[in-house]
């Protein structure tokens, strides 16, 4: 029997940072109305800095696993939300609807950081932007 919750897959390139944060926020804030998954086009493993900045706000994503879209191919999703341009352009066809909501890539932004605080700043900013987006779900999804 299909769940009454709206099923959402957050999709990113490596399922290491943005999609993991989105999954964590959605589970933390919206688990009563959403069934949440995350995946990547490829598997990069869970990003330790993403785990750290999520823990700072009381959301533990350390138990989440990085997985590829192929590992979820038997699931049906009401929505696939791509979080980066590469995932949006290379997203396989799924039953259900797809919407793109792009966020900056924290590892890329942190690459030239000279201190730990400077490195974590983009992770914190993107974490908060993703939280603000997740708070709008499912009402912000296109109708029809």
Summarize the helices and strands and which ones pair or pack.
Layout: E1 6-12, H1 18-30, E2 34-40, H2 48-56, E3 79-82, H3 85-90, E4 97-100, H4 106-110, H5 116-135
Parallel strand pairs: 1-2, 1-3, 3-4
Organism: Desulfopila aestuarii DSM 18488
Keywords: Arsenical resistance
InterPro entries: Ptyr_pPase, Ptyr_pPase_sf
Mean pLDDT, as a whole number? 91
Strand and helix order: EHEHEHEHH
Total tally of structural domains: 1
Share in β-strands: 15-25%
What gap, in angstroms, lies between the N and C termini?
Answer: 23 Å
Query: Unreliable runs, pLDDT <50, ≥5 residues?
Result: none
Number of strands: 4
- Write down the CATH topology: Rossmann fold
Shape: globular
* Rg of Cα set: 14 Å
What percent of the residues sit in helical stretches (DSSP H or I)? 25-40%
**What is the spatial order of strands in the main beta sheet?**
2-1-3-4
Class computed from helices, strands and strand pairing: alpha/beta
**Under the CATH scheme, which architecture would be assigned?**
3-Layer(aba) Sandwich
Number of helices: 5
- Report the sheet with the most strands, covering strand number, pairing sense and barrel closure: 4 strands, parallel
């Amino acid at each position: 029997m299909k769940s009454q919750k709206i099923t959402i897959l957050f999709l990113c390139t490596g399922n290491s940072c943005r999609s993991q944060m989105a999954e964590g926020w959605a589970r933390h804030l919206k688990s009563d109305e959403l069934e949440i998954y995350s995946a990547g086009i490829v598997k990069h493993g869970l990003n330790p800095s993403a785990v750290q900045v999520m823990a700072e706000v009381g959301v533990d994503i350390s138990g989440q696993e990085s997985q590829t879209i192929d590992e979820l191919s038997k699931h049906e999703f009401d929505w696939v939300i791509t979080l980066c341009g590469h995932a949006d352009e290379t997203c396989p066809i799924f039953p259900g609807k797809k919407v793109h909501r792009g966020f900056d890539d924290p590892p890329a932004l942190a690459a030239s950081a000279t201190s730990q605080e400077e490195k974590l700043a983009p992770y914190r900013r993107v974490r908060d932007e993703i939280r603000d987006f997740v708070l709008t779900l499912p009402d912000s999804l296109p109708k029809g």
